[in-house]
Design brief:
Length: 527
């Protein structure tokens, strides 16, 4: 019989972090293939005119070949329930990504074997480190000309400052990539390619010294392979699970998502070593244990209009403890009321299914017409005196690009207001001076402007013009300091009425600091 504890312990919530083009979409699809959630990989990709996986659902993403939305995909693997959260790969979406990484218990860092660590990998890695997330490294595209394995390990260690310990050693690279040697089980895994990597790759497990392997590789390559395996086994530090769980050591796999080499091994590693839902330390010092009976969770993502036919909004909730049952009532402290979760859903691309039960570690989508906000806490009130858990607020960042939004068809004012407020709730943009006829928006990267304009016109039918503003950075300040803005700075107010100072340049920001040493500038809102 399944108990709450066993259900929680068989859950894994993780995300893939990668620089664009490293193969995140491909690996996602292959994880689904090995998890049995899809039976033929490549069926989406085969349509060469668009680039998407089941987790990409915005027309804009498909047109531009980028992934801007975050979805959670659930699949079972060998008795485990895997929750894979899709992190947007584009650098302009760091805030959304940040929130997603708040909702997982570990991450897979995907690296292109010919490129090593790339800029976006570094950014995402830093976020994981801030949260002490355990990180598993998968060095992808070994079927293409690749950097030397030792060089790649060195690159990860030097650039990211994390100890990188190989769990397997690649057998050749490029066209000669045939598999890898498991350095712990001491077994050679040889794979065969399937056409287009559509099906699971047949795999043979054996020893390293056989004549068959020597013949397959050729004498010189085989000698080098055996020598490298010896060095990797004896000279490199051993894998230490504790260090991995603390986020200071990363186990490294070598593989090829496109040919499916190493995908199953990665999944079994997630099963054996990646953490189940972790306890959460609250701001008041309390700890939420995932297997506590009481249901708690928080909204880490909002998305409007996931299905245009439905015109609804979905709040994605990461369950942090307990069991969820359809129809249960939970308290939402911000609203100061109890709500019934009658219609929870899971998404698989465009398809949605109703969820009856879910456990800590799972993600549920709650459909509602604008009830929830990012960061909302949901909890089950077992007794009247139960207090709301004080989660650390989801971070907001000071935007560095600003624009004024001008509605170009004033008959659409109602749609415009609804659109800006809903998209701000989703965290697509931050809204300032909201009461003005032409409010301001701020974003972390330019591409978000395009997403915002596209969505407000496409989903709300409100045509707009964006007038770029000459500000490069901003800081939250206390209301009493608002009068200290200089001639070059502008004071605006955020959605909650807090004053924010906009600066035309980093230089101007620094000189403001020098002139006003008593004014505290905050990168995040202080409420
Ligand atoms: P992303 O989501 O991280 O941006 O990467 P994506 O999976 O879209 O992969 C980017 C490109 O790299 C794709 O090629 C994909 O086929 C290829 N790729 C992914 N994994 C591997 C691998 O293990 N080996 C090799 N050789 N290639 C890999 P594309 O030409 O852009 O698209 P497509 O025409 O192949 O679909």
């Amino acid at each position: 019989m399944s108990t709450l504890k066993t259900e929680v312990e068989r859950r894994r919530a993780f995300a893939i972090i990668a620089h664009p083009d490293a193969g995140k979409t491909t690996l996602t699809e292959k994880l689904l293939l090995y998890g049995g959630a899809i039976h033929l990989a490549g069926h989406v990709r085969a349509r060469k005119d668009r680039k998407s996986t089941k987790s990409d659902f915005m027309a804009l993403e498909q047109e531009r070949g980028i992934s801007v939305s975050t979805a959670a995909l659930q699949f079972e693997y060998d008795g485990m329930v895997m929750n894979l959260l899709d992190t947007p790969g584009h650098q302009d979406f760091s805030e959304d990504t940040y929130r997603t990484l708040m909702a997982v218990d570990s991450a897979i860092m995907l690296i292109d074997a010919s490129r090593g660590v790339e800029p976006q990998t570094i950014k995402l890695f830093k976020i994981c480190r801030e949260r002490n997330l355990p990180i598993t490294t998968f060095i992808n595209k070994m079927d293409m000309p690749a950097l030397e394995a030792f060089e790649l390990l060195d690159n990860v260690e030097k650039v990211l400052g994390i100890s990188a310990v190989p769990l397997v050693w690649p057998m050749g690279s490029g066209r000669d990539f045939k598999g890898y040697f498991d350095l712990y089980e001491k077994k050679l895994h040889r794979f065969e390619r399937t056409v287009g990597g559509a099906y699971k790759a047949p795999e043979a497990v054996g020893g390293i010294e056989s004549d068959e392997v020597r013949n397959l590789m050729g004498d010189t390559a085989h000698d080098k392979f055996c020598e490298d395996v010896l060095i990797a086994s004896d000279a490199l530090p051993a894998f230490d699970k504790e260090k991995f769980l603390q986020g200071t050591m990363t186990p490294v796999f070598f593989g090829s998502a496109v040919t499916n080499f190493g995908v199953e091994h990665l999944l079994s590693h997630l099963k054996e070593l990646a953490p189940a839902p972790r306890p959460i330390l609250l701001d008041n010092g309390d700890i939420i244990e995932p297997s506590d009976n009481r249901f708690t969770g928080f909204v880490f993502k909002m998305q409007a209009n996931m299905n245009k036919l439905h015109r609804d909004r979905v709040a994605f909730v990461r369950i942090t403890s307990g069991k969820f049952e359809r129809g249960m009532s939970v308290s939402v402290p911000r609203l100061d009321k109890d709500v019934k979760l009658a219609n929870p859903v899971a998404f698989f691309g465009q398809e949605r299914t109703t969820i009856d039960t879910a456990y800590a570690g799972d993600i549920i989508g709650i459909i509602s017409p604008g009830l929830y906000r990012l960061g909302d806490v949901l909890y089950e009130r077992v007794s009247g005196a139960d207090k709301a858990p004080e989660f650390h607020p989801l971070p907001r960042f000071a935007p560095d690009v600003y624009a004024r939004i001008v509605l170009t068809d004033t008959s659409k004012a109602k749609q415009f207001r609804k659109g800006i407020s809903e998209l701000a709730d989703e965290g697509v943009v931050q809204l300032f001076n909201v009461a003005d006829a032409s409010p301001l928006i701020g974003v972390i990267g330019q591409l978000q402007f395009e997403v915002f304009k596209y969505r407000i016109e496409d989903e709300y039918g409100a045509p707009i013009r964006l007038e770029p503003l000459p500000f490069e950075c901003s800081r939250w300040i206390s209301p009493s300091d608002a009068s200290k803005a200089g001639r070059f700075d502008k004071i605006v107010s955020d959605e909650k009425g807090n004053p924010v100072l906009l600066f035309e340049s980093q230089f101007r920001l620094r000189s403001f600091q020098e002139q006003n040493p008593d004014v505290e500038l905050h990168l995040h809102p202080t409420y």
